[in-house]
Amino acid sequence: LGGHAPTPIVSALGTLLAEGDRARPVGVFGSFGWSGEAIDLLETKLRDGGFRFAFEPIRVKFSPDPPTLKRMEETGTALGRQLLNQQKRQRRVVAGGLSESRSNPAVLALGRVVGSLCVLTCVKGEGAAALNGGMVASWVSQASFTPPGFTVAVAKDRAVESLLHVGDRFVLNVLAEGRESGPMKRFLQPYSPGADRLAGLELEHSPAGQPVLPEALAWLEASVSQRMECGDHWLVYAQVSHGGLLDGSGITAVHQRRSGANY
Fold first, then answer.
1. Residue 244 DSSP SS3
2. The pLDDT of residue 35
3. pLDDT at 1
4. How many Cα atoms are found within 13 Å in the side-chain-facing hemisphere of 186?
5. Could you tell me if 74 and 54 are in contact, meaning their C-beta atoms sit under 8 angstroms apart?
6. Which single residue of 35, 94, 116, 121 could bond 211 by disulfide (Cβ 3.0 to 4.6 Å)?
């Protein structure tokens, strides 16, 4: 959209303001040249018209750069997650508030499968166009001796998933028992779309420049070799190129669960 809003947009906006369902969230995003008046018009009219915004308006001057595209992708993912969670809550209400999985013996047994508590961190690109990500990972397992490799399961709606394609590098930070709460609190908190997950952290770096958490028990630098689609997750197989033990006397933190229906 360049400058003033085109007539078709003004016409459609009028219809939406007159007949639109205020119970449904709306969103505004678009590109512009020098002024961006069309985007401002849409935002102002919709807010004044009583509509609830699903996300803050996204303004792209001229053409989007990689961080902006990442922000837009994460915004869409977050909106999709909200809708899915709303559907789940509605199903629980219809079922009387009891989740089917809570009484499923197989799901309860699956919850006894445990894994190491880790934080996956990565950086892709350089300079202002660099993208980074991080997440807590507990579905981790060694997968091969030669070459040394492991697998990590990544939910499809994770922001970091788009940075873990074949050839991408990352670091798996293995957390220490008794010292896992700090890193977990940091990476389990909700982030706004496009937020810098590593901002403010004191980091070390692997030989390939990937971020390492100094408080970790150990770290592994790896590159994605294969990906397998597994329902609502991607199973990422990565081959280890470098690694280090930061605390030789520590013990790996392990996540104990009661149900296989959640992390």
1. strand
2. 62
3. 45
4. 20
5. no
6. 121
What are the backbone dihedrals phi and psi of residue 202, each rounded to the nearest 5 degrees, phi first?
A: -85, 115
| Cα-Cα-Cα-Cα dihedral sign, residues 154, 160, 164, 165 | positive
Tokens linked to 29 = 């995003």
Domains present along the chain, CATH in parentheses: 7-61 (no CATH), 109-255 (2.30.110.10)
**Confidence at residue 98, expressed as pLDDT on a 0 to 100 scale:** 45
DSSP lists the bridge partners of residue 166 as none
70 token code pair: 């990442």
Pair 30, 1: CB distance under 8 Å: yes
Give the pTM: 0.75
End-to-end CA distance of the chain: 43
Residues in contact with 104: Cβ distance below 8 Å, sequence separation at least 6, in sequence order: none
Three-state helix/strand/coil letters over 63-114: CCCHHHHHHHHHHHHHHHHHHHHHHHHHHHHHCCCCCHHHHCHHHHHHCCCC
Which portions of the chain are predicted below pLDDT 70?
1-4, 33-35, 92-102
Q: Which of 222, 194, 258 is nearest to 118 (CA)?
A: 222
Query: In the numeric block, which tokens belong to residue 123?
Result: 């950086």
Cα separation values, 117 from 14, 33, 103, 179, Å: 52, 47, 26, 11
At 154, the amino acid letter reads V
- Confidence (pLDDT) at 30: 81
Neighbours of 131 (CB within 10 A): 20
| Cβ proximity of 1 and 13 under 8 Å | no
By three-state DSSP, how is residue 247 classified?
Answer: coil
